[in-house]
Amino acid sequence: MHISIFASGSGSNAQRIIEYFREKGLQAEFSILTNNAQAYVIERAKQLEVPFKIVSRKAFKEAKDVLEFLEEKNAQLIVLAGFLQLVPEALTQKYTRRIINIHPALLPKFGGKGMYGHFVHEAVVAAGEQESGITIHYVNERYDEGEAILQKSCPVETGDTPDDVARKVQQLEHQYFPKVVEELAKQLSEKQGR
Ligand code: GRF
């Protein structure tokens, strides 16, 4: 099973997923694709000895290079982990229910275009929310609107700063995203095995 992780942030989720699979001796190869040549995730790919590909935002939107890369790797599952660009229809149509994303809030609240990274946690604190959390969902043509797979929450306590919320949410991400990827990979392998 080949799993391609699209990431353009610090890459901590990408690293956690790959390390989790390796620690558990799970059969999977990984690749990392990014649309940001400066992303820290490239350093992590090199340290993890995982092949990576850099595509420009324009090339990603045109999808051709990405589709060729995924076919070359025979990718069966695509995991967005801090990848902010909308996924073009050519990809969502070909990899239906095989592209997932993690959003650092309890969708449908605090989702959609522009709601990413620290802005999410600032909005949650500003809104006086009692809780926040993560939403792992299938990806379709619209930001953050695919069917949810898993949601986990954490308390937002009085006096919590956006940084405090970010830390609690990231702990949930690192705890649950690898497990969801493992479960989905298992389901896909069984389906192919049939
Ligand atoms: C995470 O907060 C994730 O929920 C969001 O982007 C961030 C990625 O962080 N999609 P990292 O690059 O994996 O550290």
Kindly describe this structure:
The chain is of the alpha/beta class. Helix content is 43%, strand content 21%. It has 7 helices and 7 strands, in the order E-H-E-H-E-H-H-E-H-E-H-E-E-H. The chain has a 7-stranded mixed β-sheet, with helices on both faces. Helix 5 links the parallel strand 4 and strand 5. Helix 1 runs parallel beside helix 2, helix 1 packs across helix 7 and helix 6 crosses helix 7. The longest helix has 32 residues. The radius of gyration is 16 Å and the shape is globular. It starts with a strand and ends with a helix. 37% of the residues are buried. 5-O-phosphono-beta-D-ribofuranosylamine binds next to helix 1 and strand 5.
Tell the overall outline. globular
Note the total helix count: 7
- Beta-sheet strand percentage? 15-25%
Low-confidence stretches: none
Radius of gyration, CA atoms, in whole angstroms:
16 Å
Order of helices and strands: EHEHEHHEHEHEEH
Q: Give the biggest sheet.
A: 7 strands, mixed
Overall mean pLDDT: 96
By DSSP, the count of extended strands is 7
Helix content: 40-55%
- Identify every distinct bound molecule in the structure, by name, code or SMILES: 5-O-phosphono-beta-D-ribofuranosylamine
Enzyme class: transferase
GO molecular function: phosphoribosylglycinamide formyltransferase activity
Keywords: Purine biosynthesis, Transferase
EC number: 2.1.2.2
